[in-house]
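During the second year of the project, the team shifted from modelling isolated chains to modelling whole assemblies. The rationale, set out in the original proposal, was that interfaces cannot be judged from single-chain predictions alone. As a representative example for this report, we include one of the complexes processed in the last quarter. Its constituent sequences, exactly as entered into the pipeline, are reproduced here:
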Amino acid sequence: MLKNVTARLALCALSAVSMAGMQPVFAQDTVTIGSFVSTSGSGAPFGVDQLQGMELAIRHINASGGIAGRKLVLKQLDTAYDKTQAQSVVHNFVADKSVIGLVGPTSSAEAFAADPIAVAAKLPVLAPANGAAGIPQIGPYVHRIGVPEELLLPSAAKTAVKQLKLKKVAILYAQDDPFATTGFKAFQAQLKADMVDVVEVIGYDSKAVDFTAQLQRLKDKNPEALFIAAKSSDGTVLLRQARQNGIMVPVVGNLSFTSPALVAAAGDAVEGLIVAAVWDSSDASEMNQRFIAEYKKSFNRDATPLAATTYNCIYVIKEALERSKDFSREGLQKGLLAMNGFKYLGSAIEFRSIGNGLRDAVVDVPVLFQHRGGKLTKMAL
Amino acid sequence: MESLLHVLALAGIYGLFALGLTLIFGVMEVLNLAHATTFAFAAVFAMYLVGYAGFSMWMGCAIAIGSASVLAVVIDRIAFRPLRYRGRTVWGRHVGPLLTSLGVSTILLGLERSLFGIDPRHFPNELIASKLFVLGNVRINLIGITSFLVLVLVVGILIFLLNRTRWGVEVRAVAERSETAALFGIDVERRFMETMALSGLMAGLAGVAWGLTFNIASPETGAQLDVKGFALIILGGMGSVLGSLIGAIVIAAIEVFGGLYLPHGLQTLIVFAMLIVLLLLRPQGLLGKPIQQGAR
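Output from the structure prediction step:
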């Protein structure tokens, strides 16, 4: 009796051990991509756009048969625009062996905190809009898809200076954010190259809501335009208060100003605002027009440059996997490294070598827009 | 001139916030760390009511202010009342309520985030003036000036109530020695409750003023005034109603004029440096009562 009980217990133990050692069975007909954008917190206006762009791309890809017959699946985890949460989320994805690649995060600050974890685990990350300097340098598994601020903003500055014949300007930037600081440096370098007098540089705390003192100081210097590198909603507040304090000159903004939610919050303060992007909504290509129409139909709002960039990210993943024909993390990485660039929505993007085996996204011709009469109007370069 | 008016606008918000804190400290001898959360709640709730629930601006703001007052009473019931008669030591009288108010603040913050979300909110643009009122060459923030006038009015009313009414006599008696006041038939618990309700009202007024002035608020907004509010009441004199007004003007002036003439970030440094010097020279603050050894 005792022997029987012992034998049965041993059998149970053996079964338990062998079951624990079994790998989970994944469906062979799916490809899972992790998304870690901010759908809450101050980054939500950007993150929601990004998520919707990805969802639409996945719907389109799956509708045309997926990737080599496999259905594309997206797993989204919210980073809440918080570095610590971004790290937790990436740890989660690293542990989830079904996830072969990531798209995100929303902010450069989160990327600096969380991407090294993915790099250490050899999990490819496609950075849709992390525009700060140093992002590709995090590691070879980080692939920047959105063109960095240091390339976009000089074009915006150069065009604004030329078209508005600017001689003296002021720069304001959120000095506690790496993305905004990169934007500031990009503006400053181009304005110096164009021999424009920067009469005032004001660094502010992105959490501040009262800029009256700084704006009054700046107003005394009579700048002909303001160049603002904001983090998120601080840009909206700054713009409103600038107009309230009688500063009605044109404003050249960074990527933060492309969010429709934040632009709507600014109200009529956006009149004259100039922003640079790599996506042109008036592009008549079939893919672009389909994207715009279906985005509007699906989400009841207009498509944004951020949504277009993450839409591109998903198509880049598709192309990379079709090249490598290997649906693993390493397969995705090989496929991405085999690509020299892409052209889906917006301008053609090239992956240019920046040394040490790293690459960055560059564009020859960005698009500039100006808010006029409540509409976004394309500016001639 | 515009800078001076801006000082008054900021002082209005800071003063109303600090008035609530100083009332609680003056009467109940506790520092309420949930006061900032109440302030943020009022701002966010007003924006929610007006922007999403369809209330008019006046009604939404009034409900938010009233709700802040009720919330303050609830905070008293949870954080302060259970410990009120237990502590006879410094820990029991002061540190315990401080810690429980911190706990309640954390819980409230979580509730606010789940109810209203973390995203910054704002009033609908069509309801908030995008341009300031211009008189000659001077731009005037009417909401800011109104906040300051409300602060002055409230300070005046409070001073009158505390010094010229029976209610004020009872509150001062409770503040002086609650046990003795109870022996004289004063309803001590009711006075505490009324003090908390008043402080919540101040937080609500400050929160709504903040929302109308800057048109942005989130549950995290309270963190912007938390430390500043304590600095202000220490500067003005803890427990001094008039001191809150003076402290608010001083700190607002440092911020505005510091922002005009000094590199960014130095204003905060100056505020706290001044605070340290003041505490060394005059520990009771500008208008606080001198601390008497052995008086209690």
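The first helix of chain A runs from residue 2 to 21. The first strand of chain A starts at residue 30 and ends at 35.
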